[in-house]
Amino acid sequence: MSDKVNIDQIAELARLNLKPEERLALSKDLDEILAYVDQLQELNTDQVEPTSHPLALENVFRQDSVAKCDVGDRVLEHAPKREEKYFKVPKVIEGQS
Amino acid sequence: MELFRSTLKSAQEFIGTDSSKRDQLIDALARRVETVDPRLKAYIHFSRKGIEAHKGSKSRGLLFGIPISIKDNITTSGWETTCASNILRGFVPPYDATPVRKLREAGAVIFGKCNMDEFAFGSSCETSCFYPTRNPWNLDCVPGGSSGGSAAAVASDAAIAALGTDTGGSIRQPASFCGVVGLKPTYGRVSRYGLIAFGSSLDQIGPITKTVEDCAILLGVISGHDERDSTSAEIAVPDYTKFLAKDVKGVKIGIPKEYFAKGLNPEVERTVKRAVEVLRDLGASCVDVRMPYSKYAVAVYYVVAVAEASSNLGRFDGVQYGFRHETKSLREMYFETRDRGFGNEAKRRILLGTFVLSAGYYDAYYLKGLKVRTLIKKDFDEVFQNVDLILGPTSPTPPFKIGEKLDDPLAMYLSDIYTIPANLAGIPAMSVPCGFSSDGLPVGMQLMAKAFDEGTLFRAASAYELATKWREKRPPL
Predict the structure, then answer these.
(1) What is the CATH number of the domain that holds A12?
(2) How far is B393 from chain A (nearest CA, A)?
């Protein structure tokens, strides 16, 4: 298993149940990819600003306006499970009937 | 000439405003798909019934009656859109992506949904949950990815033109592998509304076409500001066909030494260098330039793109759409739905992205990646002070064999080494066919330009295309 990546912790954060064989293989892949990525450490970037976006963007504001929209009904057509106008999921609070 | 071999331009001329000619073209093209696609597998959602339902508006616009094929990560109202992932199987979007809406408003016919790597994660079209697409020039080879279905369909005359998406080369590399034209527009040129997000600071929708002229026509239709995408630019869309030219007199082209370094296949190198000579004969001045940070592009990308992907794919949880694995508890439903719904490469990238964003690693990986992204962008800014275009290979190798790189993620990632920098910098870049390997497989060259200067790309690419005859050779199908 990896020294760097705690695969169980990362899978937990990513909301993935990994099968045991997946755990091993993915852990090995992650190590290899991170070893490649580590070449970034050879660069001194102390004086460099990060770029999170390629364009110089400013927030865009506009007036709210009212328009007709039937998407509310149409999105429910493809819900895995629904009840009336709601998405239905398994019980969230344990221990109640 | 058989009707299905039409370019977008010749299809426009054939149809005019005649709906019976539209039907004739659609029938010819559908028959072509039925003939070649059982071998190619370029489409994942295709049916004559679907086309009938999506013949579109009565608009006698610029693209009246022209069938356009759409990569399956772009939403099409009423037509299944899956990103080639089990987690979205059966998902029928209630709305059109903005570029699809613009196509319909111009009178185009939405013709079918093209195969791709799952969520656009891949360079070979092999990670699709349906089946791999094959390269029309050699069915044992990959068509490239992730827009491999779109490129294979256009190359095999099973589409007139198509839309793809490009996050790190996903339009240009398959265009190169299939011998067609592919353009990643400037970030912000085309609305991303309705593009199912992979890397939101990198993704762009763009055309994959048979000719440079078709590409200019199609880009003109899909471009422009959209209030539904706050990153779309409020910059006027020129008539790109006005840039098509026969020469490149006065155009200065930079050839980066780093794009011809170790790892480049010698046949690709020879082919692209011959293209440089052709452009020189057409009046361009070509100079050597240096882009010292380009070698870090793949490393930056596999931090930045996976971080954005892991965050974007958080929405797939089995609640609102797509696949759900039923369990008794909500927590298990999330975990099992995602484990069963995502394929191997998607999990790899989600885990990697989660890792580089996680506490304790954020500065060392994610922030570091963003800083080196700045350096890569600066490389371009400096070089573009002295040149109009940058030219190099699109891909370091000709198309590779199916299965060859599937178990070696890093080798697969490195096939995007020349295409990734343009996404990181947000600039437009185009792959244009420039010859064949000794095995008869297509080779593409990549042209890159300053932000929002697609016009100069079209000028150089059209002059080159007119001066060469690569278009005349068709895949042996």
Answers:
(1) 1.10.20
(2) 23
Confidence at residue B312, expressed as pLDDT on a 0 to 100 scale: 98
Q: In this structure, what is the dihedral angle of CA atoms B153, B156, B162, B164, given to the nearest 10 degrees?
A: 60
> Is B347 close to A50, i.e. CB distance below 8 A?
no
- pLDDT computed for residue B267 by the predictor: 97
- Give how many domains chain A has, as a whole number: 1
B71 is catalytic: yes
Q: What range does the domain containing A21 cover? A: 7-42
The reply to whether B298 touches chain A by the CB within 8 Å rule is yes
Taking the Cβ of residue A89 and every Cβ of chain B, the question of whether any pair is shorter than 8 Å is answered with yes
CA dihedral B401, B152, B247, B454 (to 10 degrees): -100
A79: chain B residues, CB-CB within 8 Å: 319-321
Contact list in B for residue A11 (CB cut-off 8 A) is 351
Average pLDDT over residues B440-446: 98
pLDDT of residue B49: 86
Residue A25 located in a structural domain = yes
Contacts of B334 by beta carbon, 8 Å cutoff, 6+ apart: A15, B317, B318
> Helix (H) and strand (E) counts for chain B?
15, 11
Strands B252-256 and B204-209: unpaired
Chain B residues with CB inside 8 Å of A72's CB? none
Interchain CB contact of B335 with A (< 8 Å)? yes
CB-CB contact of B72 with B130 (8 Å): no
At A2, is the pLDDT very low, low, confident or very high (cuts 50, 70, 90)? low
Interface contact B92, partner A, CB < 8 A: yes
CATH number listed for the domain at residues B3-247+429-445+454-472: 3.90.1300.10
Respond yes or no: is residue B146 known to be catalytic.
yes
Q: What is the pLDDT of residue A54?
A: 87
**pLDDT tens-digit map of B385-423:** 999 999 999 999 999 999 999 989 999 999 999 999 999
Share the mean pLDDT of chain B: 96
| Beta-carbon separation of B338 and A7 below 8 A | no
Return the domain boundaries, chain B.
3-247+429-445+454-472
